[in-house]
Amino acid sequence: MDFFHVIVVLLESTIRVSVPLIFAALAGLFTERAGVFDIGLEGKMLGAAFAAGAVAAVTQSVWMGLLAAILISIALSLVHGYASITQRGNQIVSGVAINFIVAGSTVILGEAWFRQGGRTPALGEGSRFQTITFPFADSVREIPILGPIYSDLLSGHFLLTYVAFAMVPISWWILYRTRFGLRLRAVGENPGAVDTAGISVIWLRYRAVICCGILCGFAGAYLSLAMTAGFVKGMTAGKGYIALAALIFAKWRPFNIMLACLLFGFLDALAIRLQGNPLPLIGQVPVQLMQALPYILTVILLAGFIGKAIPPKAGGVPYVKER
Amino acid sequence: MSTPYAKLPGWVEYGLIPLINLAVAFLVAGLVVLLVGENPLEAAYHLINGAFGRGEYLGFTLYYATTFIFTGLAVAVAFHAGLFNIGGEGQAYVGGIGVALACLWLDQTMPWYVVFPLAILGSAFFGAAWAFLPGWLQAKRGSHIVITTIMFNFIASSLMVYLLTRVLKPLGSMAPQTRTFAEGGQLPKLDWLLAIFGLDVGTAPFNVSFLLALVAALCVWLLIWRTKLGYEMRTMGHSPSAARYAGMSESRITVITMMISGGLAGMMALNPIMGEQARMQLDFVQGAGFVGIAVALMGRSHPAGIIPAAVLFGMLYQGGAEISFEMPSISRDMIVIIQGLVILFAGALENMFRPAITRLFAMQSRRAAVVAQTKGA
Fold first, then answer.
1. Per-window interface: A 21-50 vs B, CB < 8 A
2. What are the structural domains, with CATH classification, of chain A?
3. Does A282 touch chain B (CB under 8 A)?
4. Terminal CA-to-CA distance of chain A, rounded, Å?
5. Residue A209 has pLDDT above 90, yes or no
């Protein structure tokens, strides 16, 4: 029973840390499937987290915070879109630029507005997301196996957690079952064909970039309004890059993304759990190895040793219409 | 629009356009300063004064510039072959191992001029080794170099934390760093160089690796424009299919280019480790690998452009420290913003002002032609 309890706790924290990864990786899915590479997920998430923390602190409203997060994230996405779609600039360079601009400005603005060393003020009860407890969660906890799973694993998360998991089938439905999704995927594979069909490649890609902004906004809001109470500088701490790794690891498919994010989240949770505790059989595993594992796994996958990850064909290539 | 932009005179292409892009980046940065409620002009004054006002300040500016020349060259070499090496950060970090090993081995018995060449080789070797794998994976297994180098940055960071906390740390010490090197592991300062101009270097760690950086810049120029390998790299950068058609081995060029790039990034470690701290610390790279991207973009991947661009960023780092001292609400993170803006305007949006400028020049040359015609008649 003790072992089972450990597993439940571990899985519960896995879910908690995977949520921003799922949002961000799905965000990346939309742009990359439309042929726009985006390594600015990190920056957008950070910008959104800051906007959410700052606005929620000022207005005392969690919804205003969420809205601000989404708007800022969309704005940053549009900068990326302008650079890489309209100006046909290098998409990677643009993503790097956004990461830097956000990393710097969140600290400078946060310090100027709140004077708490780059933090936003701690949020009270009303201005952050509360956990949702399912009905009867307390009374069924005693039931063996199913009880803890229901009341500890499924119940007791934030609204955004459930939204994140709901976004997985929704994204799948949008990408694979709607006209917009079909066109979006086509524009990432063969924009010329889409253009020939009389559909604007530019506008489609902009819409994909906006979708990415919305989802990154959720990811950022989750960090500063749910996971913690307020924004801390540099709080994304490379999650945007892990999400990117998860996106590739999942071979650009929605349900695989969820699994990849859960796997990487599990590694993260396990690393924290194992700090100082030796594993049976293997012995002491350095924490650093656990932390590096998502990246190592992604490199191995990319090298084609675990199946083949084939990116969208037109990814990273700006579309030039022949005249 | 197959050939979107007309050819412009050289001074416009390599002088005016980068300057306009830079000016816009600084204008936007000025807006951020305004938003914070400070005077941008005052900030600019502190920036310039803090970077060049005194011999010591200049020494610090050039110390930072040394670092950025290395990382800028690293990114530029890869750019020429059409590769985007975003892993300079990790390669420089791992390159530190080579420097530290050379110093830990010989610092107590040998003078610096014996240790230094070994440290150079060590840093270049480890940096190149860390870039080899992404290069090889791209060449042989088709994995995207940008993604693998990003991943390798994170892996490098974990590896170095492990090494510094478990392996390279002296017994009984708590701090995650190597022991302090003896005399042989410390590079002499270039105080005499500044003394020629009547300046006093003070406490600034401006050291011999600056000269190495200049030599490296010259070597990169020779490599890219005066050797067969450089020609092949540029061919591949312009058109991989042309390179293939000419019988050049794409995978060979990719791997060698990445190793040269990684070696240059690794050599950056000499400057902070042997030149300033006299030990290897956690996070000694401090984002210099990423600054290299901005430097290479600003300098148009040409050594003659990279050196001034590196000095510019050295100025931002040193002058930025002075700004934060004089104007507390503008911390050193301001530099990160400016860096991002430079990357955005000089890199991703480099063509934003080009159509307008091209039109301007087209108009002018047409007018000149008309004038010449009327004179002739």
1. 37, 39
2. 2-302 (1.10.3470)
3. no
4. 70
5. yes
- Interface contact B26, partner A, CB < 8 A: no
Q: Structural domain tally of chain B?
A: 1
Q: What is the pLDDT of residue B2?
A: 39
Question: Please, how many CA atoms are within 13 Å of residue B262, restricted to the half-sphere of its CB?
Answer: 31
The Cα of A155 is separated from the nearest Cα of chain B by a number of Å equal to 34
Q: A300 touching B, CB under 8 A? A: no
* Other CB atoms within 10 Å distance of the CB of residue A34: 30
- Token output for B35: 């938003």
Interface contact B144-A84, CB threshold 8 A = no
Is residue B19 assigned to a domain?
A: no
Q: pLDDT averaged over chain A?
A: 85
Segments of chain B with pLDDT less than 70: 1-6, 375-377
CA B360 to chain centre: 33
B67 vs A10, more confident: B67
Host domain of residue B272: 67-313
pLDDT tens per residue, range B334-357: 888 888 898 888 888 877 888 888
CA-nearest residue to B336 within chain A is: A104
A165-194 tens-digit pLDDT: 999 999 999 999 999 999 999 998 888 888
ipTM for the predicted complex comes to 0.85
Cβ of A112 within 8 Å of Cβ of B142? The answer is no
CATH code of the domain containing B206? 1.10.3470
Judge: B337–A296 Cβ closer than 8 Å, yes or no: no
**Higher model confidence: residue A246 or residue A145?**
A246
Residue B40 domain-assigned (yes or no): no
Q: Could you report the per-residue pLDDT of A57-73, keeping only the tens digit for each? A: 888 888 999 999 999 99
Q: Which chain A residues in 181-200 lie under 8 Å from chain B, judged by CB atoms?
A: none
A contacts of B3 (beta carbons < 8 Å): none
Q: Tokens 């810049």 identify what position?
A: B217
Task: Tell which B residues from 122 to 151 touch A, by Cβ distance under 8 Å.
Answer: 137, 141-144, 146-148, 150-151
Residues A109/A58, Cβ–Cβ less than 8 Å: no
Residue B21 lies in a domain: no
Any long-range contacts for B156-161 (C-beta under 8 Å, 24+ apart)? Answer: B156/B87, B156/B89, B156/B90, B156/B91, B156/B93, B156/B94, B156/B130, B157/B90, B157/B93, B158/A288, B158/A289, B158/A291, B158/A292, B159/A288, B159/A292, B159/B94, B160/B93, B160/B94, B160/B96, B160/B97, B160/B282, B161/A288, B161/B282
Residues of chain A in contact with residue B150, where contact means CB-CB under 8 angstroms, are 39, 241, 244
Record: contact A90-B348, CB cut-off 8 A: yes
A203: confidence class by pLDDT, cuts 50, 70, 90: very high
pLDDT tens track for B147-165: 889 889 999 999 999 998 8
Is B144 close to A302, i.e. CB distance below 8 A?
yes
Rounded distance, CA B210 to CA A311, Å? 42
How far does A150 lie from chain B, in Å, by closest CA?
Answer: 36
Specify if B264 maps to a domain: yes
Distance CA A319, CA A315 (A): 10
Neighbours of A306 (CB within 10 A): 12
> Is B339's CB within 8 Å of A104's CB?
yes
Average pLDDT, chain B: 87
Average pLDDT over residues A317-323: 74
B349 and A89 within 8 Å at the Cβ level: the answer is: yes
